[in-house]
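Working notes for the structural subgroup meeting. M.R. asked for a predicted model of this chain before we commit to crystallization trials. I am recording the input and output together here so anyone reviewing the notebook later can reproduce the run.

Input as submitted:
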Amino acid sequence: MKVVATLALLQLYISATADLVTAEVSGNVSSETALSASPGDIVVLPCYSAGKVTPVVTTWTKNGREIVTGGDPTRRLIVNPDGSLNISATMPGDEGIYLCNSTLSDNSSFLARVLLQVTSGPENVSTSISPATALSNGTLYTDRGSSVTLRCSGSSYPSQHLTWAFSGDSSSNDSLVSGSGSSLKFTIQNIQPSAQGVYSCMAHNPVSNVTVISRTELLVYYVSDRHPECKWTLTQNISLVQFTCTWLEVYPTPNLRWDMGPFQVADSLNVTMSRSTLSDGQTVNCTAQPQHLGPEKEKSCSFTLELPFPEGEPMVSTLEASNVTLTCTETTSKPPAITTWRKGLQLDNIESGSKYILSLEGPVFKLTIVNVTKEDEGFYFCHSENPLGLRELEVELTVKTASSAYTGAVIGIFIAALIMGSAVIIAKIVYNSRDRICLGNFFFLFINKFCINNSVSL
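Returned structure, recorded in token form:
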């Protein structure tokens, strides 16, 4: 259709050039007029307009061919008394270059050229995008990864020029594809969120220069393959904890709900809970639901709350003037516990300094006491607390002086020597009496055999 229209326009220009040359060769005064009309319009093509003179004879040609006219009002083409050409109910095909040749009463002639363009549309321009689902406001959405086809159609005379254009976050009115005809199609393979935006179909009539634009907004929905993330945040008040549920890479914004509350539209949902509402072994769950999908597409995350349980050696002894390290291991607490070392029944808080050194190696909390004295003897507490509650490991530290350690060593050596000496003496006695022990055994065996042979009971 584009080639045919081009040829038709070329023929018009060739004919117009020939008519213009004819007019110039005649040397008569000529006039040029350009008119446009839509199908069904009544059009009057002017001829002699130099004065109020009625031409004697007027003939009209279109593209070099004489037009047959008449005075019958029922005819569609009529030459009026002033020489103008009246076209009623203009239709496609009436476009062209018209040449009027009027003979005046003084036998002079007048030439007039009229370029008539018949145009319509673009009209009934419509678009469709599939597969896509319409929202209540008319916006369409599709799922990420889909192959989406955009179609645009309309009617126009002459043939319209169609263009698909896209405007999004990272682009502005980018042309996607264009062509002439009644419809235009464009396909997006594996559509991604970057293709979300406004798609415009522009239908342009090249003759009338009229452009009609139809716009459609397309959203690209997607849901992450990952589950939402549940985490906790401790507050300055150890008896309070903030739970946070986050589900990213989801569009539109999902519905989130903790067990203890209603659904809310949010990427991240926080809830603060107190110790009175929490218990050891309690499971806290967050449910995430895409807005455009049903409950069967829900995903969740959860964690189980646990009280702290500090472990370590309950009794430790050391020598005076030495360094000693008390250890406490805490691995079970959820949320993590805050662990400190305390001393005495008054639970005095211990801080790092020249006397005490606090350190942490993984889950092991260490308290090193430098240059231990008898005053350091007593009870120490590994104090672990989380929002659920408090637990303590009690460690008793015994400090021994150097003299008591020496005395104990001497006594131990004496007892060991005594045991060894007794063993040697007993062994020697047994060795020296071995003959008598063996003879006694022989005599007993002989007597026993004699009694058996003589049927005598002992």
